Amino acid sequence: MLDDNEDVFDSVTWETPSGGGTAYNPPSSGPGFRQSTADSAEEPRPHDPKWEGYLITSVKDPVKELAETKDAYVSYLVSAKTNLPIFSTPNPSSRRRFQDFVFLRNHLKIDFPACVVPPLPDKHRLEYVTGDRFSPEFMEKRRLELHRFLQRLSRHPTLQRSTLLRAFFESSEWHVHMHQHVAHPPNPEQNNGLMDNISDTLLNAFSKVRKPDERFLAMRESVDGFEAGLNVSERLWNRVRSRTNDDGTDVGEDLTGDYHDLAVAVQGLGFLESGITDQLNHFSNTLLEFSSMLRHVTQNGTDPFLAHLHSLLIYSHANRAVLKLRDQKQMDFEELTDYLSNATSERDRLAAVISGHAGSTGLGIGSYLREKVDALRGADDDRSRVEKMRKLDGRIKELQDAVTAAHDTSDAFSEEALREQTIFQYAKEAEMKEMLSNLANAQTEFFKAAMDEWDRIIPILQRIRVDV
User: Fold this and answer.
1) 327-368 per-position pLDDT tens digit
2) For the domain with range 255-462, which CATH number is right: 2.60.120, 1.20.1270, 1.20.120, 3.20.20?
């Protein structure tokens, strides 16, 4: 967890928008990643993200509102430090509830379909059934998850500059902004085509790109490997947790319980061995303290690590969804190209038949059967063929425009997806650094404290006199 004075980026050099050549140099601490500027010695790559400033966010102070009513909810203090020109103040803050975060996330996903919009913690949890969603433990877990969500948005060079995110931090009339955003979205075509997009997704669910781009094949393999590693890590650390903490596991699979039971047994020996009762009691207390340490490192090290690990896995799923959407854009282009090719072939066939230069040779089975059916229906005269050609010409013109638009869309989406993968790679490395560092620190503190505790008992045990 970062303090107010700590940054979320390492070794970052920002140029302030106010000019004057002043550079923002945050301390090289905290999770983050390096972003090169135009003055950097490294040559910028074509898909490197372009930043306009920094945004450091936090979520604090969960408060239960309308506590004695059925409409009770929890609000959180969201605040930021920024030099982005889109913000009207360098330190915006406001109070927001979970539904506001949901609105922000859903509409960012609609407004920026090519961006990896981070996920939110879902509400399908036991606490919503049992009524424990207002417990301090649950509110703290939810606060940390929301903090991580905003931190991911702040690390994205496009999402951090969105007007909706600015209003989320600054607006004192957030509900008005919500209604205005729904009524006047930045991308109205995106909203109007929502059902069409859902239909396309269903139609293409079992389709594959016929001419895959090697770059995206490599990205998909990388995502597969990353998620497989996260799944294995989550499974193994869950096993470690179940064997360490007393959470109802089977006998022999609970170290904290075993150490507690051993402490009770040693204390019982102290009542029987009158000469070493004091030493055995001290040893029993050490065992109890060590059992407490195991429980503490689970709650403050292992559990946060597992929560962050699972959150990073879901974040990777959002990245995978963007790659899948890019494939869908390419499939749309390929399907439209096939429609255009078929329509053009049909028009050329009709033109050849009318001119008397065509027979059945080279016709597809569909065209051949269609010609025979038309002949049986008496619709094979040149007048009907000319009418069909006229309609096909209009359809071909529409398809040509659609193919051009789909090609441009596919290319533009591919470029954005490539840039998005670079951004996600930076964010992923930053989170893994933070996640593994926190786990290492927790384990280090545990083992240091455990060594100190066991070192203290050694002189006491050495005072036991053994007569030979």
Assistant:
1) 899 888 888 888 889 888 888 887 877 776 655 444 555 665
2) 1.20.1270
